[in-house]
């Protein structure tokens, strides 16, 4: 009678050196396993590398050796699934109010809600999520009022404009009060009526709304908001105040020593050029610098004919929030040889950017003198003992604090595009968690997730992955008391 010792694997447990008599019937081995595991012999399923072990088999012919592994499948007596005494209630089946109550009781901050995609509306969804990351924008929107019947209020626009602004405001309120994705049906419909250029379709029997350029859509929305959203008082902050900065621009005719002109202009975003194949841009600051120093053609005030000018720009004031557009889309001519039509192709070149953007080198001398105060104080604070937060809060009530800008901005939100052309692909918004900047929230339409910021490489290099096309930065300031100002600058 040949007997070997085998290893039996059952669920998460492993039994070593279990006796198996090869000349005995398999039922004897089953009884031994029943004593070990509690699984009735009649409900056991045994498997080895040679297949399922069945009653009546000649175990000597299965090639089993000492140490061979046998897997037991079966449930121990008394461990069978039972009908629960109470019906299980899943979190997903709860109402919005019930979910919010549970999260509040457990002190868990719910993720922001997403927006349903209503047919190539990811471009609009991503822009809405970017704007929602700006508290002052939401405050201005809440303080604005629109009355269609009386034709009065913050807006003096047409009925379509007022309806759209009302629907946009209602959508923001709905997103604030929900814990599940929101369907922006009315807002999208009125958006397309307000901006018919974004209501183009593919044509044909099964026509679909086409993809749009998110940056162009943001420009259209901001133009409307700047015109229609105003505070109750003249001194109230406006939408334009959030993004506006002054640019000092000098035009120098490259063929004339005297033909020179300096202009002060309002701007609402910075551009980051991609460079060329021979001279590519690798970093965000390189692309910004390239956009501030370029050659343009315009009519000469001296000769009255078109001439080439060297255009040099400097930032002369800083906005609370800075928009940076990465110029990734460019027109690609049609080709008869390749049989391709003209299209707006995407430059997928990798452009590195960081969480902090220092604009100091791009500023005018007048602005640099202002920034030098904050930058000097910041450096001296680093070298001296810094007061504890509770000490600062205690003094805030009794001392006058000054906000000192340094020219440094902190990244708040990113809009990315995935695909090869502006007329296709997919847009997603990414927003840094306000309470923990090691994490970033991904808004992929109705799917919202929280991931490690270091795992989200959005700098480009691959057309099949998310590539940053717009960046939203927030101005950082340091608060300094009069006493600190005198001490640190002495």
What does the average pLDDT come to?
Answer: 84
Which runs of at least 5 residues are low in confidence (pLDDT < 50)?
149-156, 386-398
Biggest sheet, in brief? Answer: 8 strands, mixed
Q: How would you describe the shape?
A: elongated
CATH fold label of the largest domain: Cathepsin B, Chain A
In DSSP terms (H or I, runs of 4 or more residues), the helix count works out at 12
- In what range is the share of β-strand residues? 25-35%
CATH superfamily of the largest domain: Cysteine proteinases
The top level CATH class name of the largest domain: Alpha Beta
Question: How would you characterize this protein structure?
Answer:
It is a single chain. It contains twelve helices and 21 strands. By secondary structure, it is α+β, with helices and mostly antiparallel strands. The protein has three domains: 3-73, Ubiquitin-like (UB roll) (Roll), CATH 3.10.20; 98-147 and 157-228, Cathepsin B, Chain A; 245-382 and 400-489, Cysteine proteinases (Cathepsin B, Chain A), CATH 3.90.70.10. Strands 10, 13, 16, 17, 18, 19, 20 and 21 form an eight-stranded mixed β-sheet that branches. A five-stranded mixed β-sheet has the order 2-1-5-3-4, with helices on one face. A four-stranded antiparallel β-sheet has the order 9-8-12-11. Strand 8 and strand 9 form a beta hairpin. Helix 3 (122-132) packs across helix 7. The radius of gyration is 33 Å and the shape is elongated. Mean pLDDT is 84; it is low at 149-156 and 386-398.
């Amino acid at each position: 009678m040949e007997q070997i010792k085998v290893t039996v694997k059952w669920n998460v447990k492993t039994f070593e050196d279990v006796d198996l008599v090869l000349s005995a019937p398999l039922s004897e081995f089953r009884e031994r396993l029943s004593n070990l595991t509690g699984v009735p012999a009649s409900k056991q399923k045994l498997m080895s590398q040679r297949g399922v072990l069945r009653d009546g088999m000649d175990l000597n012919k299965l090639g089993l050796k000492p140490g061979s592994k046998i897997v037991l499948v079966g449930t121990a007596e008394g461990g069978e699934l039972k009908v629960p005494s109470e019906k299980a209630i899943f979190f997903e089946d709860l109402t919005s109010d019930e979910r919010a109550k549970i999260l509040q009781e457990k002190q868990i901050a719910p993720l922001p809600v997403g927006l349903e995609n209503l047919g190539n509306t990811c471009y609009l969804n991503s822009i809405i999520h970017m704007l929602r990351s700006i508290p002052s924008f939401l405050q201005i929107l809440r303080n604005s009022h629109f009355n269609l019947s009386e034709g009065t209020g913050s807006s003096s626009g047409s009925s379509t404009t007022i309806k759209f602004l009302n629907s946009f405001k209602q959508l923001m309120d709905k997103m604030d009060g929900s814990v599940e994705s929101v369907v922006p049906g009315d807002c999208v419909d009125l958006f397309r009526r307000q901006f018919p250029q974004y209501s183009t379709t593919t044509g044909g029997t099964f026509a679909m709304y086409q993809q749009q350029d998110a940056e162009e859509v943001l420009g259209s929305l901001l133009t409307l908001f700047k015109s229609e959203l105003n505070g109750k008082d003249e001194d109230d902050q406006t939408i334009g105040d959030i993004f506006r900065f002054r640019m000092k621009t000098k035009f120098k005719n490259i063929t004339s020593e005297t033909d020179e002109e300096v202009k002060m202009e309002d701007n609402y975003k910075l551009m980051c050029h991609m460079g060329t194949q021979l001279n590519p841009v690798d970093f965000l600051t390189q692309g910004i610098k390239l956009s501030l120093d370029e050659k343009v053609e315009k009519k000469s005030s001296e000769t009255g004919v078109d001439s080439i000018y060297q255009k040099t720009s400097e930032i002369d004031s800083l906005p609370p929030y800075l928009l940076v557009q990465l110029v990734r889309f460019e027109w690609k001519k049609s080709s008869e040889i390749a049989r391709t039509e003209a299209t707006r192709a995407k430059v997928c070149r990798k452009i590195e950017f960081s969480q902090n953007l220092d604009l100091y080198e791009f500023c005018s001398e007048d602005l640099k003198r202002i920034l030098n105060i904050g930058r000097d104080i910041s450096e001296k604070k680093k070298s001296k003992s810094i007061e504890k937060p509770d000490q600062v809060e205690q003094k805030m009530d009794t001392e006058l604090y000054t906000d000192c800008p340094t020219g440094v901005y902190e990244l708040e939100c990113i809009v990315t595009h995935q695909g090869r052309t502006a007329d296709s692909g997919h847009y997603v918004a990414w927003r840094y968690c306000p309470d923990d900047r090691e994490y970033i929230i991904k808004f992929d339409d109705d799917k919202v997730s929280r991931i490690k910021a270091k795992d989200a490489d959005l700098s480009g290099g691959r057309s099949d992955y998310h590539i940053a096309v717009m960046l939203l930065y927030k101005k950082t300031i340091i608060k300094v008391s009069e006493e600190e100002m005198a001490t640190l600058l002495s």
